[in-house]
Amino acid sequence: MENENMNVQETANPVVVITGCSSGIGRVTAEYLHQRLCRVYPTARTDEEVAELRAAGFEGAMRLDVRKPEEIAAVIREVLSKEGRIDVWFNNAGYGQLGAVEDLPAEALREQFETNVIGLHECTRQILRVMRRQGGGKIIQHSSVLGLIALPMRGGYNASKYAVEGLTDTLRLELEGSNIHVSLLNTGPVTSNFRANAIKTLERIDIEGSRWRGFYRKALRGESRKVPFNLPPEAVASVVHRIILSDRPAPRYYITKATWIFGIAKRVLSTRLLDRVLLKV
């Protein structure tokens, strides 16, 4: 990936807003940054999740469903009223819809995009207005190795992350010279509730009417192969911290060996050969 300049930014105790902090990567990143003297405002989708965050010591925790523009605006107003600025916005919220493309109802695909793409996009649009006024800032977009390559049975999620890649690559060009930096995180397998939550999305699939019902039944029984190259969520949190400390963060960060392997394979293998590899994963 491109080099980054690693100098601590001028702003002491940077103000950071993170979406999707109920558990996993978002929660651990909030804790990691808080321990390193960042002023962290973690957000979560429900009042119960916000209460848990506040009980854990995050007094600035707030409710934010990224599908609701008014809640995004409310979070921004609240943080600005307390801090006067927002230095970093981490678009972390998202989930993975399981299911073969032929089994994926349009409504399930629509819901996948509402959170992973439209919600992320609305957060980005609103925080950009703030960062332009204040003369700079950093936006971190949580993509995936599945924004680089596709795996079967994950078509909805693959498509959402490909869309995030396209929007962010375009935005980066449009932000040239603005002192607003946008970075993509291409995470591979990371320990979290992501896989368990993905299994729950199978309720939207007509399992018994599908030619893939054997796969779905195994998934529901928890019969899955051990995921190689898995890393703890701190691997993501440490990269987010690197971005905060950098005066010129890289446009893209590969996280886990799986991302590096598939990222390189996408560049050097033909499409047919890469398909053969991906079908064995």
Protein described:
The chain is of the alpha/beta class and 281 residues long. Helices cover 47% and strands 12% of the residues. Strands 3-2-1-4-5-6-7 form a 7-stranded parallel beta sheet, sandwiched between helices. Helix 1 (24-35) packs across helix 8 (234-245). Mean pLDDT is 94; it is low at 6-10.
- The secondary-structure class comes to alpha/beta
Beta-strand percentage range: 5-15%
Helical content, roughly?
40-55%
- Give the end-to-end Cα distance, rounded to a whole number of Å: 24 Å
- Main β-sheet, in a few words? 7 strands, parallel
Mean model confidence by pLDDT: 94
Spans where pLDDT lies below 50 across 5 or more residues: 6-10
Radius of gyration equals 19 Å
Number of strands: 7
| Tally of alpha and pi helices | 10
SSE string, helices as H and strands as E = EHEHEHEHEHEHHHEHH
Shape: globular
Neighbour order of strands in the largest sheet: 3-2-1-4-5-6-7
Question: Top keywords for this entry?
Answer:
281 residues; alpha/beta; 7-stranded parallel β-sheet; 10 helices
